[in-house]
From TrEMBL:
<keyword id="KW-0479">Metal-binding</keyword>
<dbReference type="InterPro" id="IPR017861">
    <property type="entry name" value="KAE1/TsaD"/>
</dbReference>
<keyword id="KW-0819">tRNA processing</keyword>
<dbReference type="InterPro" id="IPR000905">
    <property type="entry name" value="Gcp-like_dom"/>
</dbReference>
<dbReference type="GO" id="GO:0061711">
    <property type="term" value="F:tRNA N(6)-L-threonylcarbamoyladenine synthase activity"/>
</dbReference>
<feature type="binding site">
    <location>
        <begin position="135"/>
        <end position="139"/>
    </location>
    <ligand>
        <name>substrate</name>
    </ligand>
</feature>
<feature type="binding site">
    <location>
        <position position="113"/>
    </location>
    <ligand>
        <name>Fe cation</name>
    </ligand>
</feature>
<keyword id="KW-0012">Acyltransferase</keyword>
<comment type="function">
    <text>Required for the formation of a threonylcarbamoyl group on adenosine at position 37 (t(6)A37) in tRNAs that read codons beginning with adenine. Is involved in the transfer of the threonylcarbamoyl moiety of threonylcarbamoyl-AMP (TC-AMP) to the N6 group of A37, together with TsaE and TsaB. TsaD likely plays a direct catalytic role in this reaction.</text>
</comment>
<feature type="binding site">
    <location>
        <position position="276"/>
    </location>
    <ligand>
        <name>substrate</name>
    </ligand>
</feature>
<protein>
    <recommendedName>
        <fullName>tRNA N6-adenosine threonylcarbamoyltransferase</fullName>
        <ecNumber>2.3.1.234</ecNumber>
    </recommendedName>
</protein>
<dbReference type="InterPro" id="IPR043129">
    <property type="entry name" value="ATPase_NBD"/>
</dbReference>
<dbReference type="InterPro" id="IPR022450">
    <property type="entry name" value="TsaD"/>
</dbReference>
<feature type="binding site">
    <location>
        <position position="304"/>
    </location>
    <ligand>
        <name>Fe cation</name>
    </ligand>
</feature>
<feature type="domain" description="Gcp-like">
    <location>
        <begin position="24"/>
        <end position="310"/>
    </location>
</feature>
<feature type="binding site">
    <location>
        <position position="109"/>
    </location>
    <ligand>
        <name>Fe cation</name>
    </ligand>
</feature>
<keyword id="KW-0808">Transferase</keyword>
């Protein structure tokens, strides 16, 4: 089975080809235009998707060495995401499926961040059902109980900002360019995580909150800069290490609670923030500390990419879960 997958939910245009559960190609065109605005500008994102989508699909087919006539189905991101961005991928996928007269398969982006673990890769064991998935991305922070490929239950989620936003907004306070998450990670690796203690929020159950942390970082920096205008430059590594340490602790504490509550010790992470070195290390350490089996996706499958849409497409294809041509994009789409 050959699946062509399309992802256009935010600011990356991506296309991938899968042969069964194996990735043949996974092309991502990242939109640089948003950097100068310090965040994604929806209107510009949809225009860039429109420009990128045909070349990106051609590249994905060429890299996979596949002719479009060999495709078995087209999978696409239906949501959640920015409506204007989703519309480009959705319309393109519908048209291509209609033209080639092959099935169309809609995919939930957050489910794809989780099921990315089932893309066949050498030396990468797969999580066993039931497992807990911590999805940490630019728009979401969720703990999901995964009982089967299509049997998912959200146990907890953020009440305000997503963890990726917490990274990006903290980076912005420090004067770092967008998206700042990877930069905070880079500096954090050179700093002292205990240098500046930040308060952790008290949130009920398995839910999260990150807006208070952002505010306390802002006030702390403003206060320090008043005394020493070069405070940020002189302490960048320690500030980033302290922010990252606090965020990782917040995530790990809730994961521990979820593991205890459910009795499940199979733990997987997904979403852009799972590229973070701090959370990766904390999870590795948890294997010996708490007896967990942990699963961390390959870097390529952490941030937005179409291969993760393709694996869900393949799994749905096997079950005959097809969509018809009346399907529309869905900006808010709960798994
Ligand atoms: P969603 O998946 O919720 O719709 P999204 O698709 O915009 O949101 P992703 O592409 O999955 O989000 O993740 C992007 C986020 O991941 C950004 O906030 C980015 O800063 C963050 N991120 C990426 N790499 C790292 C890293 N190494 N450390 C911390 N954050 C990171
Ligand atoms: Fe995403």
């Amino acid at each position: 089975i050959y699946i062509l997958a399309i992802e256009s939910s935010c600011d990356d245009t991506s296309a991938a080809v899968l042969h069964n559960n194996k990735k043949l190609s996974n092309v991502v065109a990242t939109q640089k235009i948003h950097e100068e605005f310090g965040g994604v500008v929806p209107e510009l994102a949809s225009r860039a998707h429109q420009q990128n989508i045909v070349p990106v699909v051609h590249q994905a087919l060429a890299k996979a060495n596949i002719d479009k006539k060999q495709l078995s189905a087209i999978a696409f991101t239906r949501g959640p995401g920015l409506m204007g961005s989703l519309l480009v991928g959705t319309s393109f996928a519908k048209s291509l499926a209609l033209g080639l007269d092959i099935p169309l398969i809609e995919v939930n982006h957050m489910q794809a961040h989780i099921l990315a673990h089932f893309i066949d890769e050498e030396n990468s064991p797969k999580p066993q059902f039931p497992f807990l998935a911590l999805t940490i991305s630019g728009g979401h922070t969720q703990i999901v109980l995964v009982k089967g490929y299509f049997d998912l239950e959200i146990l907890g989620e953020t009440l305000d900002d997503a963890v990726g936003e917490a990274f990006d907004k903290s980076a912005k306070i420090l004067g770092l360019p967008y998206p700042g998450g990877p930069l905070v990670d880079k500096y954090a690796q050179l700093g002292n995580p205990k240098a500046f203690p930040f308060p952790k929020p008290k949130v009920k159950d398995l839910n999260f909150s990150f807006s208070g942390l952002k505010t306390s970082i802002l006030y702390f920096i403003q206060k320090q800069v008043k005394e020493n205008p070069n405070f940020v430059e002189e302490n960048m590594n320690d500030i980033c290490a302290s922010i990252q340490f606090t965020i990782v602790e917040i995530l790990m504490n809730k994961l521990k609670k979820a593991a205890k509550q459910t009795g499940i010790n199979q733990i997987a992470i997904g979403g852009g923030v799972s590229a973070n070195s701090g959370i990766r290390k904390a999870l590795k350490d948890a294997e010996s500390k708490y007896g967990w089996a942990t699963y961390v996706p390959k870097f390529e499958y952490c941030t937005d990419n179409a291969a993760m849409i393709g694996i869900v497409g393949y799994l749905k294809y096997l079950e005959g879960k097809f969509s018809d041509q009346s399907i529309t994009a869905k900006a808010r789409y709960v798994i």
